[in-house]
Amino acid sequence: MVLRRISLVAVLLIVTLLAGAKGKPNAYGKGVGKVYIFGVTMQLTDSIVYITSINEVDSIDLDKKTKFLPFRSEFSLQLKEYMEGKLQAQHQTSCVYYSPNRKKIARKFYKIKKRYLDNAYTRVVMLDDKQFKFKHPLESIAYEEKE
Q1: Chain segment 58-72, per-residue pLDDT in tens
Q2: pLDDT per residue as tens digits for the range 86-113
Q3: CA 58 centroid distance within chain
Q4: pTM to 2 decimals?
Q5: How far apart (Å, rounded) are the C-alpha atoms in residues 11 and 13?
């Protein structure tokens, strides 16, 4: 009877250890899914709003628990650096919107675009894929290391 209880505790201990050994996915690694993303940037003292087109970013997964996009700040920083570098627009405030569903992000895109187009005091400038395209942050890091 004692041997049976000891073996039961040992089996439960092994199962618990094996279940806990399953590693969490690395937020800084490449994923297998794709995410649709677009960005909005503006200077708070100016009336011009820049909106990017919807881009598809491969090899990235949303966090399973929170549904947040890893590298959110890096995507926003890509847009801000583009604006400050190429267009010489200083002090930009950037925001990115994302979704794994193309229809949901398209609805959000048109809602945001309509909000700024309906405002008589703002001018909307669309940035197409030829001008600006979001890249996976790990690809840009690898590119910088090669140079």
Answers
A1: 888 888 889 898 888
A2: 888 888 999 999 999 999 999 999 999 9
A3: 11
A4: 0.73
A5: 5
58, 68, 57, 55: which is closest to 27 by C-alpha? Answer: 68
Pairwise CA distance, residues 73 & 138, whole Å = 13
Confirm if 117 and 126 have CB atoms less than 8 A apart. Answer: no
Length of the chain equals 147
CA 7 to chain centre: 48
Residue 108, classed as helix, strand or coil, is helix
Residues 79 and 38: beta-carbon distance below 8 Å: no
Residue 96's contacts (CB-CB under 8 Å, 6 or more residues apart) are 37, 38, 39, 40, 69, 72, 75, 76, 79, 134
